[in-house]
Specification:
Layout lengths: L1 E4 L11 E3 L16 E3 L1 E3 L12 E4 L4 H13 L1 H4 L4 H8 L2 E5 L4 H27 L33 H12 L9 H10 L4 H16 L8 H14 L14 H16 L5 H11 L7 E2 L11 H13 L3 E6 L2 E6 L1 H21 L1
Parallel strand pairs: 1-6
Antiparallel strand pairs: 2-3, 4-5, 5-6, 7-9, 8-9
C-alpha cells in the first residue's frame, strides 16, 4: 500500500465527493468536463504513526479519477509508456490519500519526541548495567549527540573547538602535504582564527585548498587566496538559515566554508551538476553506509561517470567513500545534509515564484 501524505485539507461534501473547480491553468483539460471525484473514507491501523486528526481516502470506487489519470498518462506517454485503464484501476486499489496530516515542522517535532523517548529509554537501560554493585566488570558507554536534551542527566563531556595551537598544527600538517604550496605562518594563524578553530570548517578549508592546487601545476593557490574568498563570500552571500536550521556558535564560519566549496563543485564543468544532484539525494538519506550502487540508475549505469562524480565530492570533503570488497559505501556529514536540505527547499521556493 502506498500512502500519499499532505498537510492540506480537502473539501468533501456530504455525498463523499470532492468538487473540482475549473480554473485557467494548463492542466484544466485533464478534468474540464468532470465536476467531482467520488472518494471513500477509510480507517487505517497506522493512524497512531502520525498522531493527528487527519483522514484517509481511496479513489478506487470512481471512474472519473481513472479518466483524469489516463489523460495525464497520455501527456507523459513518451516518458512513462502506455498505461491502460485496467492498470490504473488496479493501482488505485493500493493508494491511500492521507489529508490534514502534520506539516514539515509538526512532523519534525513528532520524530524528535519519538527519538528523545527512544534514547532516554536506551540510556536508562544501559545505566542498569553501569550501576551494578560489582564495579570491576561493569561496562562503559559513550553516547554522542549534538543535542544533549535527548539524553538523561548523566555526566557530560563537552567537545568544543580546538585550541589555537592545535588548530594551527592541523592546518600546517595537512597543507604541507600539498605539493609546491607555499605556507605563510601568519596566514595559517589568521585562517585558524577566522575559522574559530572549528574542526569541520578547518577540514573544509583544507580540502578546498588541496583541490584548487591539484588543478594547478604550480600550486599557486595559497591560504591568503582562501582568506580573500572567505571574506568576499561572507560579505555578499552568507546564507540565512531559518529555524529549524540552527548551527550554533559556529554558524557563520561553517556556512561560509560550505558555500565556498559548494560553489566550486557546481562550477566543475565535467561533473559539477551531477555532484550537486547527488548531494540533493544524499541530503535525505540515512547518513552512514549508503550504497553507491543506488545511484547507478541516475547515471544510466555508467559506473565511470558515477565514480568520477563521487570522487569529486570526496575530494572536497563533502562525503567519505569506503570500499568494502566490490561495494562502495558513502558516508555524509549530517551538517552537510542539513545545509543541502535548506538549499534544496530554497531553490524549490524560488522556482515556484518564477513560474
Amino acid at each position: 500500500m502506498a500512502i500519499v501524505y499532505t498537510n492540506i485539507d480537502i473539501n468533501i461534501n456530504d455525498c463523499g465527493q470532492l468538487p473540482l473547480i475549473n480554473s485557467i491553468v494548463p492542466w484544466k483539460t485533464w478534468y474540464e468536463e468532470i465536476k467531482s471525484i467520488q472518494l471513500k473514507e477509510i480507517s487505517l491501523d497506522t493512524d497512531n504513526v502520525l498522531p493527528c486528526s487527519g483522514k484517509f481516502y481511496m479513489f478506487n470506487d470512481d471512474d472519473n479519477i481513472v479518466q483524469i489519470i489516463k489523460r495525464q498518462a497520455e501527456l507523459f506517454e513518451e516518458k512513462i509508456g502506455e498505461i491502460t485503464e485496467e492498470e490504473i484501476k488496479e493501482a488505485l486499489k493500493f493508494i491511500v490519500y492521507a489529508v490534514r496530516q502534520p506539516s514539515d515542522y509538526q512532523l519534525t517535532e513528532i520524530i524528535k519526541n519519538d527519538l528523545k523517548k527512544y534514547y532516554e529509554d536506551y540510556v536508562h537501560y544501559c545505566l542498569k548495567y553501569v550501576n551494578q554493585p560489582d564495579k570491576s566488570s561493569r561496562p562503559y558507554f559513550l553516547f554522542t549527540s549534538r543535542n544533549q536534551n535527548c539524553i538523561p542527566d548523566i555526566t557530560k563531556i563537552n567537545l568544543d573547538a580546538l585550541n589555537k595551537e592545535d588548530a594551527e598544527i592541523l592546518l600546517k600538517t595537512e597543507l604541507k602535504k600539498i605539493k609546491n604550496i607555499h605556507l605563510n605562518e601568519s596566514d595559517v594563524a589568521k585562517l585558524a582564527k577566522v575559522l574559530q578553530n572549528f574542526p569541520l570548517a578547518l577540514q573544509q578549508a583544507i580540502a578546498y585548498i588541496r583541490s584548487k592546487n591539484t588543478k594547478s601545476l604550480d600550486g599557486n593557490y595559497s591560504v591568503k587566496n582562501y582568506l580573500i574568498e572567505f571574506e568576499n563570500k561572507k560579505k555578499s552571500e552568507l546564507l540565512e538559515y531559518p529555524p529549524p536550521f540552527d548551527f550554533g556558535a559556529y554558524k557563520q564560519v561553517t556556512l561560509t566554508t560550505f558555500d565556498i566549496t559548494i560553489s566550486e563543485i557546481q562550477n566543475d564543468q565535467k561533473n559539477g551538476l551531477n555532484a550537486i544532484k547527488i548531494l540533493q539525494f544524499l541530503a535525505y538519506l540515512y547518513a552512514d553506509e549508503i550504497n553507491a550502487d543506488m545511484f547507478l540508475s541516475y547515471f544510466k549505469n555508467n559506473v565511470k561517470v558515477r565514480d568520477e562524480t563521487l570522487y569529486l565530492l570526496e575530494n572536497y570533503s563533502m562525503i567519505t567513500i569506503t570500499k568494502i570488497n566490490a561495494m562502495s559505501s558513502i558516508k555524509i556529514h549530517r551538517l552537510v545534509q542539513t545545509v543541502f536540505q535548506h538549499k534544496f527547499k530554497k531553490a524549490t521556493r524560488n522556482n515556484r515564484k518564477n513560474n
